[in-house]
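Assemble and predict.
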Amino acid sequence: MTRDVWVWAEQRQGRLLPVSLELLGKARELAPALGGAPAAVLLGHGVEEAAGELFAHGAEKVYLVDHPLLALYQGEAYADLLARLAGERGPEVSLVGATALGRELAARVAAKLGTGLTAHCVDLYVNEEERLVQVVPGLGRGTLWEYVCLRNPQMATVKPGVFPVPKGDPGRRGELVRVPCDLREESLRARTLEMVEEEPAGVSLEVAEVVVAGGWGLHAAGGFEPVRELARILGAAVGGTRPAVDRGWIPEELMIGQSGKTVSPRLFVSLGASGAMHFTTGFLGSGVVFAVDQNPGAPIFEVADVGIVGDLRAVLPLLIEELRRARGGSAPAE
Amino acid sequence: MDIVVCVRRVRDGAEPGRSAIGPLERHALEEALRLKERFGGRVTALAMGSPPAGRALEEALAAGADRAVFLCDARFAGADTLATARTLYYGIRRLGPFDLVLCGNESATGATGQVGPQLAEFLGVPCVTHVRRLEAPAPDRLLAERALEHGHMRVEVWLPALVAVVKGINTPRLPTVWGIMAAAEKGITVWNAEDLGLDPHLVGLEGSPTRLVRERKTEFGRRREIFAGPPEEAVRKAVARLKELGVL
């Protein structure tokens, strides 16, 4: 048994997802307090190069399972392998990125091991009893709930963008543990046939330096257009709240918050959103938060650096004009 | 095709005109009814919780489910996703053999998306989550399109299996007057922990490996420089401040 902190290294077509490196950075921070080492589990085919990147970003061990049938995510096989490895090696903690695949995988592995799993973690730390504390947004303004897991491995999922990607050091080396695998095609009762990757349209929310998001309050200002206009001026990505999705202003994949995306841009602009916890947890890591709303008591102002209280119909046109001037009067990009 | 749909109850159902079934579970139910229309069989709506039952199961029956089962026991309260999945598993086991379990990808409240895969693990069947399109080329095989962050996967799955659906897979039908009348005759079966042969230590809070240990207020550490008053002045001051902070 080890006291290691594991991270599932999610790769798609051999490329590691940034969230795996983000979690590795956190694992490096947690491992000393637990008396273990940060380690990554990498499943795939012909993905050994990714192991180097994992070492560079802090993994001291990489468990590599290489098999042609593992090239694409195969739910049952991936879960079997991860659970079997965890059963043999006994990590203290196992972290998984909350991607579409990671959420399924982590849940299945936790059920196999009969252990707990906490979703939506915004922070992780080790307490005096040397247990992992999993911090998630609670109900109500600024409330956080702290969970612990009574069994091992203590498992948690974390959304992309919650933790920063640690600086890599290409000179760093670690121990590569090759894990044998005798998977047969007949044993796959669900089989991923192909993966189609699509380029996101416009500036991608996850990597944008500036994000402009809108909420339900915009209905008073005639709709969502001011958000798009400001985004054009600032070269920003567009996002929004759940009510903005429900009104059909933006597609679901642009939703920010607990059940949507987590973003950490240099500047986050919120227009007409009151600041429900489900929304604000999606941008807590932003550099500067700028909020505009008509309700002076709106909780959005508790999480804002700079804010304007006022009638959106009056404020937004003035703001658009002022920001266009501030950006040197540059013409819209489109 | 014998299909079980996991139905989550929502509090909104207390309001007239609002559905008592969670938004994604309505899509799961619709998908089940469509498969039954094509292949025949039976649709069972399954809900779990502590009393009261609420209207969700009646609504499922009115929409066309053949039977409804409520796993109801005060001891189920406080369950985390593992204890929830375990309880649902015992319910499905008591129902007998099935071809397909359909559920919403995630609840509208907790939104963990964990119960589906955990239930599949207890049932010992494969699962596909984030499914936005489902085809059934044969009664024992499905082709699912699983949505990814940027893109999708095509997954072939042999039954029995569990499929968790996302918004957009279909448009749920509205209950008809005929359906509502028929629902009243079908009735709802209620089972508690003993009926399921389920050790009460394995359900609810006691059967949950995760524990809430502390609630605290967070300090966001934001500047909170809020400008009010005449819009021209507020806008000018706010933009000047953003410039000073070096983000424009």
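Helices of chain B lie at 23-39, 56-63, 81-95, 115-123, 177-186, 231-244.
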